[in-house]
Write a structure and sequence with these properties.
419 residues, mainly alpha, 3 strands, globular
């Protein structure tokens, strides 16, 4: 009996020590990455505001592209694979170079300053992943614990920039391997996410929130319309993924030199912007998302955003794909709601969640981010649309290094990468 009690005591004490260890390192990660993420947020805000005040900055986009390519070459990182490297490092044990952090920081700010069409979360994941990995190495962690530190850093950076700590904590665990989650990272990711959110809040970063005008009662007909919207959103998410990967392939096939590639991409974006007659599709596009909740939309806006983002990222400009996916989902959802006469602002929110799920293959994160951005009242619509979009989007995804460990259709181990 005495030996049993001693064994239980030792077991509990070892777990408590492990908990205290991860709490300490998660706080360190949340503080450091939260501060860097906050600085990055304000740099991005300055770049966006500057371009809005001086639209002629768009004509310097090719110059900004040359600076981006030159900076990666100067740091001997010509074959940068971005977020794919972060995900691959968790699978394979590759090391993420710390130089990725300043490179993605600078290049994303330049992309937005001069009018590239991209988001900011790609930079967040790469910033957080590279800094988290470096912290793990400096603290003498073994390879498996360094993987947790990478996820911890990703959660902290995502939370600081988006102000969605629940979704940020889960996203880094869910996005790596579809079908399983690395629950060993749960405590570190949660704590670092909350700390980073607190840091961002202290420096007056207000998280994004959107108000849905009216939410009808959930019944058979509204559910059927939601199913139809989700089916369409799954198709739109697949189209977005194909456009991104195809544009990258075409740029690299016909323009081997990265300088020529990014110069051509800049010229294409300038031409597209002049043809459209506005800069609504440059940058991240948050004002357009907000306008959709007021039922102000362009019917083909989602197609233009796909085109602009594919032209930007395929050429070698830096940023992220997730905010553009929100833009695409919002504009398509608003269009759908107006065509069917079905709660356009609700369809805008549903479209954002469903397209995000389709391109990331992260249903739990998608549901949580809907709750944090739109509130809980639309829960049945979010739940239904995300489930269907996850299933019908197939094995397409934004990140080639993301693994589909278990099939979406059967209880079957497949362990394959996304299209």
């Amino acid at each position: 009996m005495k030996q049993t009690i001693q064994g239980i005591t030792l077991h509990v004490w070892s777990r408590v020590k492990l908990l205290m260890r991860w709490i300490l390192f998660s706080i360190l990660s949340g503080l450091s990455i939260g501060l860097i993420g906050t600085f990055f947020f304000y740099c991005m805000k300055y770049a966006t505001d500057a371009r809005a005040s001086y639209p002629w900055l768009l004509f310097f986009l090719p110059v900004g592209g040359v600076l981006i390519v030159a900076s990666y070459r100067f740091m001997h990182d010509e074959k940068d694979s971005g977020t794919n490297l972060v995900l691959s490092a968790i699978h394979s044990g590759e090391s993420i170079p710390l130089k990725m952090a300043p490179l993605i920081f600078l290049s994303t700010v330049l992309t937005h300053l001069f009018g590239g069409s991209a988001g900011r979360e790609g930079a967040a994941l790469q910033l957080g992943g590279s800094i988290g990995n470096s912290l793990g190495r400096q603290l003498g962690f073994d390879q498996k614990d360094q993987h947790i530190m990478i996820m911890c850093g990703m959660s902290a950076a995502f939370s600081a920039l988006f102000g969605t700590p629940m979704a940020a904590a889960i996203f880094s665990m869910e996005v790596v391997s579809v079908g399983i989650m690395h629950y060993s990272a749960l405590v570190p990711c949660v704590i670092s996410s909350l700390i980073a959110k607190g840091i961002a809040g202290y420096f007056s970063i207000v998280p994004e929130q959107f108000v849905i005008g009216s939410i009808p009662d959930f019944h058979f007909m509204t559910g059927a319309k939601t199913v139809l919207l989700a089916i369409c959103c799954a198709g739109v998410s697949v189209l977005f993924c194909i456009a991104l990967h195809t544009s990258e392939h075409l740029y690299q096939k016909y323009l081997k030199n990265p300088y020529l590639r990014i110069l051509a991409g800049g010229a294409i974006l300038i031409l597209l912007t002049l043809l459209v007659g506005s800069q609504d599709y440059n940058g991240a596009g948050m004002p357009i998302i907000e306008a959709c909740f007021e039922n102000e939309y362009v019917p083909y806006g989602f197609l233009l955003k796909i085109l602009f983002t594919a032209a930007t990222l395929g050429a070698g400009y830096k940023g992220g794909e997730i905010v553009p996916s929100f833009f695409i989902g919002a504009t398509f959802g608003c269009l759908f709601g107006n065509l069917l006469g079905f709660a356009p602002s609700l369809c805008t929110a549903v479209g954002m969640g469903a397209v995000f799920c389709g391109v990331t293959n992260c249903p739990i994160t998608s549901l949580l981010i809907c709750f944090e951005l739109f509130g809980f009242e639309g829960m049945p619509y979010f739940l239904l649309s995300i489930a269907i979009s996850y299933m019908l989007s197939g094995y397409y995804g934004l990140y080639h290094s993301q693994k589909i460990v278990y099939s979406k259709y059967k209880t079957e181990f497949i362990n394959r990468k996304t299209h």
